[in-house]
Write a structure and sequence with these properties.
CATH architecture of the largest domain: 3-Layer(aba) Sandwich
CATH class of the largest domain: Alpha Beta
GO cellular component, one term: mitochondrion
Order of helices and strands: HEEEEEHHEHHEEEEEHEHHHEEHEHEH
Distance between the termini: 72 Å
Bound molecules: guanosine-5'-triphosphate, magnesium ion
CATH superfamily of the largest domain: P-loop containing nucleotide triphosphate hydrolases
Oligomer: single chain
Protein name: GTPase
Largest sheet: 6 strands, mixed
Number of domains: 2
Number of helices: 12
GO molecular function, one term: GTPase activity
Domain Obg: 60-307
CATH topology of the largest domain: Rossmann fold
Helix content: 25-40%
Strand order of the largest sheet: 12-13-11-14-15-16
Radius of gyration: 33 Å
Number of strands: 16
Biased composition (Low complexity): 16-25
Length: 586
Amino acid sequence: MPRFGLLPASRWGLRSTPPAASVLPAPSPEQPAASEEDASLRDRLRRRRRTEWKRKQRGQTFLDNLIVSIRGGSGGDGCVAFHREKFKPFGPPSGGNGGRGGDVYIMPTPHVTTLSAIPKRIRGEPGANGQGTWQNGKNGEPLIIRVPLGTIVREIARGDSRRSKDEWEAEEESFEGLNTGERLEKMRDNRWVHYPRFGETNITRDSFKAAEQALYAQERERRFARRQRELEEPINLDLDKEMDTSKSVDAPLGARHREPRGFLVASGGLGGLGNPHFLSQLNRAPKFATRGQPGERITLALELKILSDVGFVGMPNAGKSTLLRALTGGRAKSEVASYAFTTLNPVVGIVRVASDGTFEGGVKAGQVHDDTIVEEQQERERMQSGEYANALTRNQTAERHESLRVDTDRGGYHFDLAETFRFTIADNPGLISDSSENVGLGHSFLRSMERSLALAYIVDLSAPAPWDELLVLRDELEKYQLGMSRKARIVIANKADLLGGDGDAAAVADAKAKLRRLEEFVAAQMLTGDGLRLDVVPVSAKFSQNLTRVVGLMRTYVQDARDRLVEQPPKELDVVLPRPLLPEPR
Ligand SMILES: Nc1nc2c(ncn2[C@@H]2O[C@H](COP(=O)(O)OP(=O)(O)OP(=O)(O)O)[C@@H](O)[C@H]2O)c(=O)[nH]1
Ligand SMILES: [Mg+2]
């Protein structure tokens, strides 16, 4: 009899009958289970579920925010030992000191682009314990947390529920429910190492009591200094620039070159002192040593401001992701599908421009950027039909066809030579009306656009009234941050290929009239920060039409903005200074 026989099967999550209306057709033994269509349907449903989940998070879980709790390494314990040697019956105390715990640093680097690889809890390496014959323990190695350029690091203040406990609070918590005597005993255990069987007698001796008093006094001082530092100069770093790794030109000849470690965020605990430290005229054989101190504990909020030059703003399904893929020659992998909220996180891509205005990927004739699911399907079919089996390698192609050796339609390698300018563009999730009230995916992702040099509106020209979209987008930008819409420089009217019907004169005239109406609307209602008109460019992202013009315009915006930045550098948000080490106990 099954163990759960007495309970209804549903109690155990089992169903005696299949659910009445299942979304997917149940595979029957006669039918082959996973046909191609089933697989694609399942794939589609999986994607949709993921979107729904993200939507329900109400914009709270973009991967540009992270809270990490960091501990410096704890110090190693001091050692209690006495020197032993033949014919020397009472050797001197010889316990080594413990090693210092490893410090934790934070360093901006261009080699990382997201915060996804950073663990939520970070521990510095502990120092090793001291040993007999005056052997000191090894110091813990420093730990460097590498974060992308454009990360803002803030210390979470006391009283915030997201902050984890500091070392003293954690100790206090472990004493819960103990009376005063037990507390004192536990505190001593955490701080002292005794020679075997001398624990009881040590604590009655005056020399130990004096040492204990001194230790607590040091600890109070350290704790005070730490709280003061938290109040007066909380960690607040704006890591925009890569760290300078070169040696100063003024460095004296032969000076050691130290690898930069970044900014100190949590220092490791000091190592414990060995018993020779407590040697005095009154106590010739100290039988105690101190344990290592715990490392500093700190909670940091990391926030990534993606530093893209141009940010896309548009309604869901306007074709932002398709445009990103088209402008980067398919290198930026942003998902494209025909339902709203396909893109859940901002995605950044690089546009590489040659001297003649062409851009990498744009010169590939006949390339279609379709829905990613369709492209995957086509790829799978090509693979299964064996089309790739006899494909020539790049070198073979170049050898056989002399003319292909300097081809311009192959991205990457050749563009390394041709490229004269590059800028980054960011694809964003869709904005809809009332995003500011957290409808849809909310608008919190716009934080990563705060610093972009220009914004581009993407609208769907095939929609009945694309001009209405523009007003909504502008309002949402303003609701996010007053004056943000002044950064917009261009209106990209996408999906122009859908207009014009079969090319008959009337349909083409209609399409032209619609475009003209959009242009008139933009001229009348939308101005840039400098009081200029926004450019309006009809394009087809899917078929890469008219994109060279878009790239040319974007290039001028970026260049203008960069020149302006050089003329008037922005005010530094925060003073970025490495934090000094905590004072050493005397
Ligand atoms: N005909 C045509 N279809 C396009 C064009 N650009 C995009 N599409 C289609 O429009 C649909 C939506 O495209 P996406 O790029 O996913 O749109 P999006 O703005 O990124 O949408 P979200 O990520 O949901 O905000 C897809 O089915 C695309 O194939 C275009 O220029 N012409
Ligand atoms: Mg998208």
